[in-house]
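To whoever picks this up:

The nightly regression suite flagged Transcriptional regulator as changed. Nothing in the input moved, so I suspect the structure step. Input below, exactly as stored in the fixture:
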Amino acid sequence: MNKHPHQIRFGQALSSHRKKQGLSQEQLAFNSGLDRSYIGGVERGERNISLINMYKLADALQIKVADFFTDADND
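Regenerated output under the current build:
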């Protein structure tokens, strides 16, 4: 499976925000209403995330969607 560089960077940003808050993938899944395996796939850059799911994750992490991208640009 080919991983697109943008998917990898988004996944890294998601993982970073989740870990900064001390959340497991399971906890983030519960808080966002998404499946844990889906979150794992996004973090590994294997899933092409939708805009709606970006908002669900941002809301669960209490951040702005833009934070996923600004932090990734600064890494």
